[in-house]
Write a structure and sequence with these properties.
430 residues; Myo9; microfilament motor activity; 9 helices; two-stranded antiparallel sheet
Length: 430
């Protein structure tokens, strides 16, 4: 009996297992369970005889409806969770893709900017190199042309001097030839006169005298010709010496021209350096003038020994530096902006607290006032820093001056954040 029931249950369960939907499988399994329960308990058969199958069907329908509803709600909630998870994953992946795309765009933009800057620099460098090369070529070409023209001018001058010298020598030769011809004519005339005299006079005496006179004249004319030849040789030697001296002078002039060019370059560099030093000196003088104006705008503390120096120095007493007998050393800010002690001035020890208070008030007043800038640096900040360094306030762990300065600066920043004066303290503390 039990074996038959098991076989029937297995035969009924096979088509239920073959179905695809889990809900249908559950419903079929419940139906089989209900039928097995009915077969197990035979007393329920009497309900079927008495007309109770409708109640059982109603119960089965209600159970199926509740089961289907619960399954559908569970399935729907699972699908919703899966959809939400899928949407979250998609959003995450899309955000990653968007960030990756944005990073790629930024890298591309940066690469394009770097490439553009590099190409611009390279183009500018090539342009400057080409310009420099063209200027060098032009200078070399103009230098060669100038040298060629200078050589031509020198050759023209040498040729002109040579022609002048040749003309002068030709004139001298013509003069000498004319003198020789005149001498020959005179000699011939004298010979004819001597012949006539010999013919007219006694032969022996006159002939001797004529020969003596002719020999003297010939010797004198020969000496004159030799003298003229010597003068011509001396003139030619002087011309050769003048040419050599001219060549040496030209070489010396070239060397002097080179030295002059070098000296001009050195002079130009020295002038540039002098101009730079003058500009630096003017900047330093303007800065010192601004510092003196800033220091002059601050009221100074009077001391008995500093009344004679009011026209030159501005006196201020440090907060932390004291003498051995309790007196406070006054501080002097000169025209150059340097701070030093006045060893000749001494205040009594009873006024230490008042002097410290006055100096603190002066320092706070420097903070509250707008003293402007000098060469890009705030005057008030520079003055306060120099004062604190001179007073050796940085060597101590904590002083009241720093507390008051910090409070004043914070109050000024809170009240006048837009004012230009606050930029001094931002520059100082940043």
């Amino acid at each position: 009996m039990d074996g038959d029931r098991r076989r029937e249950l297995a035969a009924i369960a096979r088509p239920a297992r073959a179905q695809d939907s889990p809900a249908r499988r559950l419903i079929a399994w419940l139906q089989l369970l209900f039928k097995a329960f009915v077969q197990r308990h035979s007393w329920l058969a009497r309900w079927q005889v008495a007309g109770r199958p409708a109640l059982l069907l109603l119960l089965a329908f209600l159970v199926q409806k509740n089961l289907r509803r619960s399954y559908l709600s569970w399935h729907k909630s699972r699908l919703q969770r899966r959809a939400a998870a899928a949407v979250t994953v998609q959003a995450a992946f899309r955000a990653m893709a968007a960030r990756r795309d944005l990073l790629l765009r930024r890298r591309t933009r940066a690469a394009l900017y770097i490439q553009a800057q590099w190409r611009a620099r390279r183009a500018l460098w090539s342009y400057l190199e080409m310009k420099r090369a063209s200027v060098i070529c032009q200078c070399a070409w103009r230098q060669s042309i100038a040298r060629r023209q200078l050589g031509k001018l020198r050759l023209a001058n040498v040729e002109r001097e040579r022609l002048d010298e040749l003309c002068r020598l030709h004139e001298m030769v013509d003069v000498l030839q004319q003198a020789v011809e005149d001498a020959e004519v005179r000699v011939i005339a004298e010979r004819e006169a001597a012949v006539k005299a010999i013919a007219e006079a006694p032969p022996v005496i006159k002939e001797t005298v004529v020969w003596v006179e002719d020999a003297d004249k010939v010797n004198s004319w020969n000496a004159e010709v030799d003298r003229l030849k010597g003068l011509l040789g001396a003139e030619m030697q002087a011309t050769i010496d003048a040419k050599k001296a001219l060549a040496k002078a030209e070489l010396r002039n070239e060397k002097l021209a080179r030295l002059l060019g070098v000296q001009e370059i050195k002079n130009k560099t020295l002038q540039d350096s002098v101009k730079r030093m003058e500009e630096k000196a003017s900047d330093l003088e303007a800065e010192n003038r601004m510092l003196r104006q800033a220091v002059a705008s601050i009221p100074s503390v009077k001391s008995p020994s500093s009344e004679n120096h009011r026209a030159h120095d501005l006196q201020a007493t440090p907060l932390n530096e004291k003498t051995t007998n309790g007196a406070i050393k006054p501080m002097i800010v000169d025209r150059n902006g340097d701070i030093h002690d006045d060893d000749n001035a001494e205040l009594p020890a009873s006024n230490d607290a008042e002097a410290e208070k006055q100096q603190q008030e002066l320092l706070i007043k420097c903070i509250s006032e707008d003293l402007g800038f000098s060469t890009g640096r705030p005057i008030a900040a520079y003055l306060i820093y120099r004062c604190l360094v001179h007073w050796r306030s940085f060597e101590e762990d904590r002083t009241t001056v720093f507390d008051r300065i910090i409070q004043k600066i914070s109050a000024a920043i809170e009240v006048r954040d837009i004012d230009n004066g606050t930029h001094n303290w931002r520059f100082l503390w940043t």
